[in-house]
Amino acid sequence: MNKIVSKERFSENVTKLVVEAPLIAKARRAGHFVIVRCGEKGERIPLTIADSDPAAGTITLVIQAVGDSTRKICALEPGEFLTDVVGPLGQATRIENYGTVLCCGGGVGVAPLLPIIKAMKAAGNRVVSVLAGRSKDLIILEDEVRASSDEVIIMTDDGSYGNKGLVTVGVEEVIKREKVDKVVTIGPAIMMKFVSLLTKKYDVPTEASLNAIMVDGTGMCGACRVTVGGKTRFVCVEGPEFDAHEIDFDELLMRLKM
Amino acid sequence: MENYNESRNETWREELRKSKTAKERNNIERVEMPQLDPAYRITCNEEVNQGINAEQAVLEATRCLDCPNPQCVTGCPVGINIPKFIKNIERGEFAQAAATLKETSSLPAVCGRVCPQEKQCESKCIRLKMKQPAVAIGYLERFAADWQRNNTKQEVPPMKEPNGIKVAVIGSGPSGLSFAGDMAKQGFDVTVFEALHEIGGVLKYGIPEFRLPNSIVDYEIDGLRMMGVKFEKDVLVGKTITYDDLHEQGFKGVFVGSGAGFPRFMDIPGENLIGVMSSNEYLTRINLMSAGRGGDTPVMQGETIAVIGGGNTAMDSTRTALRMGAKRVILVYRRSEEEMPARREEVGHAKEEGVEFMTLHNPIEYIGDEKGHIKAMRIQRMVLGEPDASGRRSPVPVEGAIEEIPVDIVIVAVGVSPNQLVPRSIGRLDVSRRNTIVVNEETMQSNIGDLYAGGDIVRGGATVILAMGDGRRAAQNMAMQLLGK
């Protein structure tokens, strides 16, 4: 049982929860995720860790309500409990001083991107962040991202905030303007697919963090399998980040509809 | 090894032996296991084998000749004193029969249900040499354990004084539970770490309730709790805490029983289509997560389901599919029925329930519809050729004999590999090319002195009882090491 310490509503469907999980708070690195369960009959839901406070023994999760289980989690109030939280799972992001790193997040994907932005900055990189959302109220964590980025570009589909246009417009602008050594992208699979196609064109190494369907999250079920470089890989133990240019995004998009 | 003759020479045993002639014992027919009717049982999740009653048990126990050199015991990986528990049943001392089981087995009600006795204790029974069916040791084991559970309050077995030494167990499956029970009896302070949200490992997520009800597993786990064993759920050693953290927390010995939970696929075209899944995924969704039975977790349903493989997990998957409402369930296995690794009993149950067997067939491709959902499988007919390394005749494709069968779901049950998560997190640990932990087979000790391992993480893929035997041996040896004996 893990207590909800605080809660913040980012938008109608996006909620931030700070949850007691002292061991995970201490062990987690940028890129890790957890599996949570809400209720004795609850589904196991993978969620990427947005932040942690080892001193307070808490982790931060940002959840988008898309189905019954995520709605249940978003409805939890401070003082209430998640039935289970296990982690940190997956492989941590490889943090190095690459030079210039472009971090590109869409929608709720900005939450798991934030710790990577922070770690890349701390490793001495110049960090340019491109945040995208359908409209202004779907741009989350902007202040936190600004605090660790050298530059932030905001893209909205409807132009209600920042620049109007898809995320790829912002990414291309940066790549054309300066040498980018690494791109990290987290967001809807369709967005990551187009970011990947774009950076492939410019030959910029790119990592994408995948949000596959999982049950156990420890390599046991294989529900999260994805084809990378022609080989089947398990997102839960080998990922969640893979070389975006090698990922079969069409298969991933298809499997996410199951 | 225990001295089995000591108990055999007790007065009551001698008198009991003399009470009937060998001929009288030989004339008794082996008991049949009462079962639920196939038409009824596929509509529910109730246990298929109903267990024998006291009268049947006493009669079956009478079939045992209490021979002077019992070979059955050599076939038991945990070394149960089989004649002693059986003769206690014959004389009506069911509680003592159960206590005899508990001396060496932490999970008798589980073993009485899922052990392949026909390949172990029963395969060594003297009555087989007399061209008669073996004594039904498994049924009797189950009877004694069930009788105790249903008729007495659970009690703590005789235990040594606490010695204050902390030991950690990674994984709460059969090897870990067996190890935990034996160490607790020896006075150690035992903590079991489990990655999932339920204790029991494969006994919970893998084996369906119609073969092993969860309440029985939970009873055995409660027994361990009463013995002072602590359980920590949602802790993945290697991720949540490390092997080094365990040392910092004062653990002096670590047993790894993390299992073989990494599903194998066949690497054929279409295997990542929607509707193709591992048996681990299918069974975990249904058994652990209660999908389709009130749980929030979904599971795919379909009219026609094919299961690939010939082991117990394949049988469990076919029979689960029937219970989830599939109209047609096809088992596809590349060799013939004779080579199937599944227990005969499970094969029989699956057939009775209406599973279609397509032996000597092997899938070569799955075909999807425009949405990426599987709609058919292409299967290749096979014939048996020369024996392979395993001694079984290996299947060879019949050229051109390929057939396409419409299916809604395919469940791949072609085996599992060791889960690398725990071994990989301990840098110095000696791991084989097959990703199993390398141990001394006698002691179960790894190249790291205080780390022992057993079960599928060492064997790659075996049975509940072999895992329990490993746990037991590891406990004996670790206890000696830690107590400086």
SSE succession of chain A: EEHEEEHEEEHEHEEHEHEEEHEH
Task: Estimate the strand proportion of chain B.
Answer: 15-25%
Question: Can you say what the CATH homologous superfamily of the largest domain in chain A is?
Answer: Nucleotide-binding domain of ferredoxin-NADP reductase (FNR) module
* Helix amount of chain A: 25-40%
Broad CATH class of the largest domain in chain A = Alpha Beta
The CATH architecture of the largest domain in chain A can be named as 3-Layer(aba) Sandwich
What name is given to the CATH topology of the largest domain in chain B? FAD/NAD(P)-binding domain
Structural class of chain A: alpha/beta
Tell me the major beta sheet of chain A.
7 strands, antiparallel
First and last CA, distance of chain B: 17 Å
Total tally of structural domains of chain A: 2
**What gyration radius of chain A follows from the Cα positions, in whole Å?**
17 Å
CATH class of the largest domain in chain B: Alpha Beta
Shape of chain B: globular
Q: Write down the overall mean pLDDT of chain A.
A: 94
Total number of β-strand segments of chain A? 16
CATH topology call of the largest domain in chain A = Rossmann fold
Key phrases:
heterodimer, A: alpha/beta, Elongation Factor Tu (Ef-tu), domain 3, Rossmann fold, 2 domains, seven-stranded antiparallel beta sheet, seven-stranded mixed beta sheet, 8 helices, globular, B: 485 residues, alpha/beta, Fumarate Reductase Iron-sulfur Protein, Chain B, domain 2, FAD/NAD(P)-binding domain, 3 domains, five-stranded parallel beta sheet
